[in-house]
Amino acid sequence: MKKIATITAFLSISFIAQSQVVGTSAAPPKPVEAVEETIKLQEEAYDFGKIPQGKPVTHIFNVENAGKDSLKISNVQASCGCTTPEWERNKIQAPGEKTKITVGYNAAAEGPFTKTITISYNEGKSKQITIKGEVWKTPAASAPENAALKSLGDE
Q1: Are the C-beta atoms of residues 131 and 45 closer than 8 Å to each other?
Q2: How far is Cα 89 from Cα 23, in angstroms, rounded to an integer?
Q3: Who's near 90: CB < 8 A, 6+ residues apart?
Q4: Rounded to an integer, what is the distance from CA 108 to the centroid of its chain?
Q5: pTM
């Protein structure tokens, strides 16, 4: 009787194991589709390098509608008040059409800076661009007069 019970148990386990192997065959994974990027920027970051304190600077970011549908930039928001973006408001761009976003930076504070600007478009989508650089302190007074230069003119 023990032999029959052992054989029955062995066959049952074999049947269950075989069922699980057959039941787990999955379809091959589907390839991930590329997400179409509607907004295309010529560059996503700009480095002003070293700029003098107190001299505001600007840079133009070129934007293209690379999608198949229209593009509407609803807002361009800087990370702080020292950065001022300007763009054509309430304009809807057709596919392939280009526009510009002008970003100004008020170089009042000395030292390195990195600022982000968020472009909001097509109801809920966004993209970030960045400006950076270093503001160097300008001297408080002009350079002293060089007396040696006067003697050169006398000869």
Answers
A1: yes
A2: 58
A3: none
A4: 25
A5: 0.68
**68 or 141: which leads in pLDDT:** 68
Lookup result for tokens 């002293």: 144
The set of residues, in sequence order, having a beta carbon less than 8 Å from that of 24 and lying 6+ positions away, is none
Rounded to the nearest angstrom, the gap between the alpha carbon of residue 5 and the centroid of all alpha carbons in its chain is 68
HSE on the CB side for 118, CA within 13 Å? 7
**H-run or E-run covering 2:** helix 2-23
Of 114, 91, 104, 102, nearest to 62 by C-alpha is 102
d(CA 90, CA 70): 12
Find how far residue 133's CA is from the centre of its chain.
17
Tens digit of pLDDT for each residue in 47-63?
999 999 999 999 999 99
d(CA 99, CA 119): 13
